[in-house]
Amino acid sequence: MTSVQQGTLRAPGASIFYRSCGRGRPVLILPGGAADADMVDPLRDALSDRYRVITFDRRGLSRSAVDPGGPAPTLQGHAADAHHLLAELTDEPAYVFGAGLGGLIGLDLLARHPGQVRLLVAHEAPTKDLLPDAAREAMADAQQAMLAALRREGVAAALKRSAELTGADPEDREPDVAGPAVGPQHDANMAFYLTHDLPQLMAYRLDLPALDVQARRIAPAAGQSSRRTLLHQCAQALAEALERPLAEFPGGHTGWLLRPKAFAARLAETFARSEDADPRLGDGVRPRTDGRP
């Protein structure tokens, strides 16, 4: 078993709990929703025989405490935390995997600190501003329904609405994978996510010009089992906006959680393909065939 190091990073307005495991090129994992570092352990373990895998609790979740009286978390703030963590733990660009909200955080990180990212795999990031009008309105309605369910009936009702949006199927998993643990900490994390992070997610707008410049560092991705969902449409819209192929991964929106071994193998394959870059480019970004930078 590969040893795991853990610690706490002081960032502006918060203390960020993190773990580092394995050797090799760094991989930063940014899960979405209410997921903390513990929920990423199976995926981390499946990758740590070939990479140094870095995980952390987003500020406000589990062991990453927001300072009393400090500002409310923002999506840009989460990306800044990832930036500070990478600066602390490695001096080389990292592979980054972001799912859902984590995908948006990864996109913001890449737009602001491209030198820290070797490749970003953005899995079903809710890039609703790229959707056609009707789909964008449907996404906004679904997100508002989650908030309304939280206010009226609590976390369990909001989770049900979330499952409807993501198309989550708890039976779509590898045989030896148990369902995600639930309990007071999970409920507290979900309440924090819905109260603080979801409104930020809904208001966030991509810096598309900055991302277009870094398009060859981005691998838009979606689940094989989520093709009929709005989040799969978001991934397809991101791929089209950046003129990148859409990579499909095992499982659905939470394939990284429920199919960690197959998902890790697909990630490793995606990372390896990204190494096939023009050797004239020190940053690993290929020239675009359409003449744009």
What can you see in these coordinates?
By secondary structure, the protein is α/β, with parallel strands linked by helices. It has a single domain, classed as Alpha/Beta hydrolase fold, catalytic domain (Rossmann fold), CATH 3.40.50. The chain has an 8-stranded mixed sheet, with helices on both faces.
How would you briefly describe this protein structure?
This protein is of the alpha/beta class. It contains ten helices and eight strands.
Distance between the termini: 44 Å
- Estimated radius of gyration: 18 Å
Mean pLDDT, to the nearest integer, reads: 92
User: Biggest sheet, in brief?
Assistant: 8 strands, mixed
Structural class, judged by helices and strands? alpha/beta
How many DSSP-defined strands?
Answer: 8
CATH superfamily name? Answer: Alpha/Beta hydrolase fold, catalytic domain
Bin the strand percentage. 15-25%
Neighbour order of strands in the largest sheet: 1-2-4-3-5-6-7-8
Approximate shape:
globular
Q: From the coordinates shown, what is the CATH architecture?
A: 3-Layer(aba) Sandwich
Any idea of the CATH class? Alpha Beta
What is the fold named in CATH at topology level?
Rossmann fold
Order of helices and strands: EEEHEHEHEHHHHEHEHH
> pLDDT below 50 for ≥5 consecutive residues: which ranges?
278-293
